[in-house]
Amino acid sequence: MGYALNGLRTLIKTEHNILVHAVATVIVIALGWWRGLGTVKWCIILGVIALVWICEAFNTALERLCDMITKEQHPVIKQVKDISSGAVLIAAILAVVLGVLVFFF
């Protein structure tokens, strides 16, 4: 568990996008508490929050690994980084769509 906590600390301290996710997380949790969400809706909200954070963590790890392989521009490394970033975007879009459904329907 120590390695995992070190990884989370590193992610939070060094990755700018995590700040955006953290602010969104706090806002959504506060809105959910204020709206008095039921158990199923909380499970949906917390699940997509976790998914976005997990995707961001894997994206960051993969980008750092790619940077260790080469600092030069390489088309395959660029594709790997772009695909990984795309996964974060997919998770974030899903989170927004499910958030709208949970809070407004």
Structural features, described:
The chain has a single domain (2-104), classed as Helix Hairpins (Orthogonal Bundle), CATH 1.10.287.3610. Helix content is 90%, strand content 0%. The chain is built from four helices and no strands. The protein has helices at residues 2-14, 16-35, 39-69, 75-104.
What would CATH call the architecture?
Orthogonal Bundle
Q: How many E strands? A: 0
- Number of helical regions: 4
CATH class: Mainly Alpha
Low-confidence stretches: none
Note the run of SSEs as H and E. Answer: HHHH
Report the major sheet. Answer: none
Distance between the termini: 39 Å
Average pLDDT for all residues: 95
Please give the share of residues in helix. Answer: over 70%
Anisotropy-based shape = elongated
CATH-assigned fold name: Helix Hairpins
Radius of gyration: 16 Å
Number of domains: 1
What fraction of the residues are assigned to beta strands by DSSP? under 5%
Structural class: mainly alpha
How would you sum up this structure in a few lines?
The chain is mainly alpha-helical. It is 90% helix and 0% strand.
List the helices and strands and how they pair.
Blueprint: H1 2-14, H2 16-35, H3 39-69, H4 75-104
Helix pairs in contact: 2-3, 3-4
Give short descriptive properties of this protein:
Helix Hairpins, 4 helices, 105 residues, elongated, mainly alpha
